[in-house]
Amino acid sequence: MKVKKLDINGFLGKQDWGSSNFIAPCIFHAFADVEVDQEHRRLSLIFMCVPVSPGNSRLIWTFPRNFGVWIDKIVPRWIFHIGQNLILDSDLYLLHVEERKIMEIGATNWQKACFVPTKSDALVVGFRRWFNKYAGGEIDWKGKYSGALPPSPPREQLMDRYWSHVVNCKSCNTAHKGLKALEVILQIMSVVLIGIVAVTKQNMISMVVKTTMVSTAIVCFAASKWLAHFIYKNFHYHDYNHAF
Known about the structure:
It contains five helices and six strands; from the N terminus they run ββββββααααα. By secondary structure, the chain is an alpha+beta fold. It folds into two domains: 2-151, no CATH class; 170-235. The protein has a six-stranded antiparallel beta sheet, covered by helices on one side. A hairpin with a 2-residue loop joins strand 5 (44-53) and strand 6 (56-62). It is elongated and about 85 Å long. The mean pLDDT is 87.
């Protein structure tokens, strides 16, 4: 991987499987070269990171492709978003900490805060070169902000997924409401089944039916607990154990 043609408009990157293009100031486009795939299948990543205030950015990304598009009509978008959010969230805390380290040491000395020895780090180095050369190593907030970073929030707030994504995503928001409703239904079914068994006279239902109802109630309760954990981990907060 290497960086080519770095100027005020951004830079080009080249790797074995394709190319990438940083379009200044906040768009990254990676794509597979046509000659790499004889079937002319194309897959791209378009990633926009727009600074909105010191320490905060709005991320907009998409993965356009010209093959396998049928799967989007079968698999709900929120299923894909769960996997994509894992990738973003896994680096979020690291980036948060690194931003503060670079701020402390100075943008021009960023190499002292980051260890980037491999060829795969070429794009990071390329962006830092562009940022220091053409942006002076800092974002021009036009007087709206001083540039000072806000205090670090708790991890639960920093990596909160509900308010940063779910409420703004129609697919994830709909899935969240549906799964929460299913969780409540399972809990109600569990209570109702146990209640029926408790109030029904012994000779009115057979032992087999009673055992089946109790077993179903237990399964419903266990399923509701598992679903609650799934909802929290995928739609609210997913922690990571990073080594520093």
